[in-house]
Amino acid sequence: MTDPRLGTRFAVYLCPPAGDPYYRLGSELLGFDVRAGREVPLPGFLRPADQVDAGPYGLHLTVVEGFYTDPAWWPDIEAEARACVACLTPGAVLTLTGGRVELWDGGETGVHRFDPGAPLLVLHTLLLSRLARFVTASPFGAQVAQGKYARPFEQARLGLLHTPRGLDSWQPHFTLVQPYGGADPADLRARLEALTAPHHAQTYRSVALFEKREGETHWRVRADLPLGTPQTE
User: Fold this and answer.
1) Is residue 220, in this structure, part of any structural domain at all?
2) Residue 233: per-residue pLDDT
């Protein structure tokens, strides 16, 4: 490979199905429908410049970071991810509760943050640890070089898992706006809170394997990985 930072990337995300109301809302806010691979018009209170960073990802909640990899490993990455998903007990579901809108990075990043249920936290940990061997470069390299993530536990994670985030300090969230450059972050937060209020509790029965191919600017869904058929009573 050439410079791996310019190459193929993989990630595991939570991503609602295409017909889900929250998926439609998130795609409209971000200006990009990742499942359809097409741009969509932004709402009037957002400008294209407000979604330069978040838009190309589409609506997603990070379970495993967007790591760089060798494209020759795709069959192995997908097989490993499916094996991890299969380890959950029959009927397991991935739950998000306590939804709330938060502004991070001095008001530049608007997120819909949640508390994960136990099966989701377990799956996050399992996938992160098992997929680490397919990572050729970390997206956090530049920030580490600037002196960020220098605490001992963050350095330990970087050495083992290629990310300083997650595990017992995981903050599951959907990024809805980034980088907001408007003059009224409080208004942005109020708008996002009103729009997301019906979706403060969510349930998933699959995770999605995402990819970004070398030379492309936007991400795509490579495969949905179902947890299996829920138990019936």
Assistant:
1) yes
2) 39
